[in-house]
Write a structure and sequence with these properties.
Radius of gyration: 21 Å
Number of helices: 5
Order of helices and strands: HHEEHHEEEEH
Largest sheet: 6 strands, mixed
Number of domains: 1
Shape: elongated
CATH architecture: Roll
Strand order of the largest sheet: 2-1-6-5-4-3
Helix content: 25-40%
Length: about 220
């Protein structure tokens, strides 16, 4: 093997290693985002306010939108959104989830795309839900599903929420089903409404498709 051939081979190996390193980094980023999204559901189930807030970036442009509740923007507003003592008035202002309360929210079918900059990412998920919550003054067994379209940011090597959008498709009494009763709204949120108008959220049976963040993985359209 000549010196030139050896140099070419070394160059090729370095390029291959570089590509593999990038692929490993993206894979690790995707796994970290999956863990972040799953942790959100576990903390939400038990009204763990500090843990929920700890998942968010402190950037001024962070936002939270859930259904037609308007847009919470910035750290202080999102803290209000997760103040469960005020958020769920049906439970008498308590700040700990009562034993009869059940809110299991599972992220499924996640599609995560990390941007080329390596510090921004977007993810789409189904949020499948089952629980026992008060609706209309009585405890109801509920089943539901919605769509998340979220944005994430990597700060000091740690992935955090940047924008969270959740659109319920159904939230129905288990004994009635979503054809008869597609949606039962949450109790009113606190005393202070969110400061800004929200995205266009619609429920079953509207046929509404919450916009995809990604292009078709085959056609690229």
């Amino acid at each position: 093997m000549t010196t030139n051939e050896l140099a070419a081979q070394v160059k090729s190996l370095k390029e291959t290693v570089g590509k593999l390193e990038k692929r490993i980094t993206v894979t690790e980023d995707i796994e970290a985002i999956k863990k972040l999204q799953r942790a959100y559901g576990y903390y939400l189930e038990h009204w763990e306010e500090e843990n929920l807030i700890g998942l968010w970036s402190h950037r001024p442009d962070i936002t939270l939108e859930i259904n037609a509740g308007g847009q919470y923007k910035g750290w202080e507003e999102i803290k209000k959104a997760f103040n469960f003592g005020d958020h769920y008035t049906a439970y008498g202002g308590v700040k700990k989830a009562p034993p009869e309360y059940l809110h299991i929210l599972m992220p499924l079918s996640g599609i995560i795309d990390v941007e080329p900059d390596g510090i921004n990412a977007k993810g789409r998920w189904y949020g499948f839900f089952q629980g026992a919550l008060y609706r209309g003054g009585q405890l109801r067994a509920l089943i539901g599903c919605g769509i998340w379209e979220n944005e994430y940011v990597k700060e000091d090597g740690i992935w955090k929420f940047k924008k969270l959008f959740f659109n319920d498709i159904i939230s129905s009494p288990l004994d009635e089903g979503w054809v008869k009763t597609p949606y039962l709204a949450n109790p009113p949120h606190g005393s202070s409404p969110p400061p800004g108008p929200g995205t266009n959220f619609q429920h079953y049976p509207s046929g509404y498709i919450f916009p995809y963040h990604y292009k078709n993985p085959v056609t690229g359209k």
